[in-house]
Specification:
The chain is 38% helix and 23% strand. The chain has helices at residues 43-51, 73-78, 96-103, 110-115, 118-122, 124-137, 153-165, 183-198, 210-216, 234-237, 241-248, 257-260; strands at residues 5-14, 17-27, 32-36, 58-63, 66-67, 81-83, 171-175, 202-206, 219-224, 227-232. α3 (96-103) packs parallel to α7. The protein binds adenosine-5'-triphosphate and magnesium ion (MG).
Amino acid sequence: MTPLLKVSNVAKAYGGNRVLESVSFNIHAGEIIGVIGPNGSGKSTLLNAISGFTRPDHGEILIDGQPLQHLVAHQIVRHGVARTFQLPAMPEKMTVLEVIMAGGTAHHGFWSNLLNTPSVRRSERETRSRAGQLMERLLLSQVRDNPAAALSGGQKKLLSIACALMGHPRLLMLDEPTAGVHPNLRREMVTMLKQLAADGITLMVVEHDMHFIRELCERCIVLDRGHIVAECTPAELSSNVHVLQAYLGKKAHAAEKMTLC
Ligand SMILES: Nc1ncnc2c1ncn2[C@@H]1O[C@H](COP(=O)(O)OP(=O)(O)OP(=O)(O)O)[C@@H](O)[C@H]1O
Ligand SMILES: [Mg+2]
């Protein structure tokens, strides 16, 4: 079966800093994959490379067999790939509803949006209705007319997920969705994300919260200094010597297993 996402030998360096080296993995449609690793191990850069926010130096990225690595971000959105950012930045003067509606135009590209082409205008009613459904689903209906920049940290995370969903993605990549989020909302996020997966969206989730990873994911990819050092189930993480070495920075001993999870 062709994987939904196939990443082969991807490398990226910034100057002399080799951030990703020979990164290869597959994700099949319907999977929920966790991406973990210490700070600076290359997780966000990997998401940037897949979503067109940075161009890999080497390697190939295929979505359903189609190469993405030479495309720019809005073209990649058209292939059904969406993502959120680790630190969601919200525009100062737009409401929650307006920001979500803008998320529905990400695939049109700069010129179509600027010129307000017929296809952009035609889709406005559809966009408004989808925005309403997503606000309901992501607990944002009460704040729909509030300035997006004034939302709480957790609400901004939900808003960025809603924006990413506007384009009906096949693959949704989330960069630290629970950072700074209250445990109650974290639990709700697990339920919401499982529901998205049940609706047919494949999920790739970068996270530091191991509890969240264990609750949500079926498989994990572990990055350390730009290399994939393990691919395993969440249950196997705490006994994987490469994972322990990545997190503890030295030869792992059985007694240290508890430190990770
Ligand atoms: N645009 C950039 N220019 C220069 N260096 C960069 C750039 N983006 C990332 N890096 C470097 O790449 C390395 C990996 O960064 P990245 O943000 O991918 O790590 P991460 O695994 O997401 O870390 P964290 O868990 O802290 O978010 C870091 O050393 C970072 O400084
Ligand atoms: Mg990061």
